[in-house]
Amino acid sequence: MEVGLLYSGGKDSTLAALLLEPVADVTLLCGTFGVTDDYEHARAAADAVGFPSERLDLAPSVATDAVEQIVMDGYPRNGIQQVHEHALERAAATDFDAIADGTRRDDRVPTVERPLAQSIEDRHSVAHLAPLAGVGRSAIDTLAEAHLDIETGPSETVSKGDYETELRALLADEYGRERVESVFPSHTQSRVTGRR
User: Fold this and answer.
1) What is the DSSP letter of 53?
2) pTM, two decimal places
């Protein structure tokens, strides 16, 4: 089975790839709106862990709409969810037998609810795999520590090639850096630099 996995270069999507590796040919899909070149960080992480990768072009209008949603809400959840669903749709329209992502059990965003997964499968004749759907954060951290070399730091400084990076850049261009800081909570991000 050939699987296209949405890939940010972080520990969750990397662990999802490692879990699928024994049973599938996994290609890591590095999504980008073309706003920044941060998808190259995801591509470098894919190389570091030994998986083939492809660029997945996402519609810039979706990023613009997501930024407007984030500004209107005053927080990023709905905008990031919108972007993730778009990325799943784009991945499903490719030639893979299955698509996958690194969403885990206790994620607040993005999430893939059962009706969305079934809709994508039915409309695109593709399987949706979520290898971390039953796994919580503490288990993810333990698995990552055992199998991956990881760089961590504040989300503003650890660029890993995910949706948030490009949305932050668009938001800063349109509304200024202060607005980014007011709607995106500071949190720790991870970027995979290799396997152990």
Assistant:
1) E
2) 0.93
